[in-house]
Amino acid sequence: MIEEKKSLNFIEQIIEEDLANGLPKEKLRFRFPPEPNGYLHIGHAASICLNFGLGLKYNAPVNLRFDDTNPAKEEQEYVDSIKQDVQWLGFEWDKELYSSDYFQQLFDWTIELIKEGKAYVDNQSSEEMAQQKGTPTEVGTNSPNRDRSVEENLDLFMKMKNGEFEEGSHVLRAKIDMEHVNMHMRDPIMYRILKKHHHRTGNDWCIYPMYDWTHGESDYLEQISHSICTLEFKSHRDLYDWYVDQVYDPSLLRPKQREFARRNLSYTVMSKRKLLQLVEEGIVNGWDDPRMPTISGLRRRGYTPNSIRKFSETAGISKRDNVTDVALLEHCIKDDLNKTAPRVMAVLNPVKVVITNYPEGKDEILTAENNQEDENAGFRDVPFSREIYIEKEDFREEANKKFFRLKLGKEVRLKNAYIIKAETCIKDENGEVIEIHCTYDEDSLSGSGTEASKRKVKGTLHWVSIKHAVPAKVNVYDRLFTDEAPDGHKDKDFKEFINPNSLQVINAFVEPSLKEAAILDRFQFQRMGYFCVDTESTADSLVFNRTVPLRDSWAKMGE
Question: Is 307 within any annotated ligand binding site?
Fold first, then answer.
């Protein structure tokens, strides 16, 4: 059998071309450069999987470098969460680095640029500078401060560094070309004054380099061969190259920036600013709320590292912006958990069933298969007794031929147990069924080998013995937004599309084996969906989160 060769994505094609043109393979080095101003989300997972995946493919080191140039928004909490997420996804970085590691080197280079007449201090207002910038179709005009002398610029820049000016009063700009077709090249800002405490450098600096000045130079210092960014940085590539050109030593490797489209997902938002709004306004319960698209939220909801890596691989990378259907992500976790998650029984909307001909006071231990998809998953004990819970929607007094669950006068099989027949039911004053009386066929125990056990009945129900049932809180999560593109409406706030039914809290009953479940253990509640033990669950107070229902909308779309 000939093994199918996987086609290369366009980033891999670029790398292969560079290797063919003489780049030594040992010079390959990649990086993942998050800004620690929020928790990582499923879009960042695409970049993580791409960069670290390239490292694995080419046996090349990958740096984890934090772009910590804005102390107003960055926190150590975010640094810690990012490291946890990358490790949880199964990746290891070569070096843990920070843009702040290079603050002194960047400053020293900046002094040289000022001396070469390639940078100047501007004390105009941001509105004045924006007006002079021009438009994509109209050239910009020079700042009146553009031709300051080297000595004056050095003096003003040192005063900026020494904290002698207020925030927003002065900036340092690169002197490039105010008539350049690319607006990013029209004398971009290199430094601004920020009198804020930095999570690593403390109060050592009150001027901070801009992302564009920091990014390429950090890549150069780390000798990154391929600096892979999202598509919005494509227009910044000219500036990236210009900055690197100012410090480039031909004896060293020159980094190359290339771009791919960021991952957009339907029924969610990917802006960290908007996700922070959801957190700060209490619309969700923190960054790791299972309704959030954050990696920590997906982890708490029950997603596996393998499912997220598979999703990133299947969705692929593109040169053009597009939206990936969230149903693909759900398909990936269902496919993974179908192979790995133990099957257990839980009743979310219970109604009492009394098996009238089953001996009172009798208990028996039945054997249940943990996962028919995994021959090594083994079996477990499940207690059975005269009174059980089933799902309320699994019973009707009368129903048509297409209803294969329990109805009066008809039989169903209880999973891993007996065939029962509904005889009568009891209702409350509102006409709601509160108790169903059934009889059972004593010889019909599943797996017993008797003729009765081999009888075919169309319906099979899950159940829980009332005497042994363990109460549990179950969080049934739905999509956080009702609209496919909640932030795609210019005239509406994205929060207008918040789904009021994104969380339903249910008091359920589960089989006793789940008392031993550990935090983040994942299970299939038979016929109900996949569920995960929540981080706030305890032995005395079980809490489960629904990861995803059993119905696979992506597979149906595929058909």
Answer: no
Q: What pTM was estimated for this model as a whole? A: 0.92
**Domain range list for the chain:** 103-211, 263-342+470-558, 346-461
For domain 346-461, give the CATH number: 2.40.240.10
CA 522, 514, 394, 505 dihedral sign is: negative
User: Distance between CA atoms of 193 and 381, rounded to whole angstroms?
Assistant: 66
262 is catalytic: yes
Q: Is 4 annotated as a binding residue?
A: no
Question: What CATH topology corresponds to 103-211?
Answer: Glutamyl-tRNA Synthetase; domain 3 (3.90.800)
Is there a catalytic annotation at residue 396?
no
Q: What angle do CA 85, 86, 91 make, to 5 degrees?
A: 145
pLDDT (tens digit per residue) in 122-175? 999 999 999 999 999 999 999 999 999 999 999 999 999 999 999 999 999 999
CATH code matching the domain that covers 263-342+470-558, chosen among 3.40.50.720, 1.10.1160.10, 1.20.272.10, 1.20.1050.10: 1.10.1160.10
313 belongs to an annotated ligand binding site: no
CB proximity list for 75: less than 8 A, separation 6 or greater: 36, 37, 199
For the stretch 309-320, pLDDT in tens is 999 999 999 999
- Please list, residue by residue across 456-478, b when 16 or more beta carbons sit within 10 angstroms of its beta carbon and e when fewer do: eeebbbbbbbbebbeebbbbbbb
